[in-house]
Predict the structure.
Amino acid sequence: MSERQITRDMHRPSEQDEPMHRWSMTIDGETVSELWVATDTGEIMQVETPREHQRQGYAAALYRQAATEITIYHAPASHRTPEGDRFARSVGGDALPCRYGCCTDDEE
Ligand SMILES: [Zn+2]
């Protein structure tokens, strides 16, 4: 039996970034997916799943776990990568509107 674990911590994606919430899934100690959420807005900033671990529902499991702990939102539809957009549509849930003034708000 492999051991699947979800852990939550705070982590800086890089030196320049503010710390973010991070939910990580590990299987037998190997990280198979990470979900990063901004602390101020609850916006999902990044979902990372190495290619060999994709299509297993790991990121969706992280999304569901995170959503039970804090209020989280998908990025504005107009700001998503194609992968992020597919993810948001597949797991469902609320998204933030664009707050940066760069998008007309009739998208979606
Ligand atoms: Zn925008």
User: Anything to note?
Assistant: The mean pLDDT is 93. The domain at 4-91 is CATH 3.40.630.30 (Aminopeptidase). The chain is about 20% helix and 25% strand.
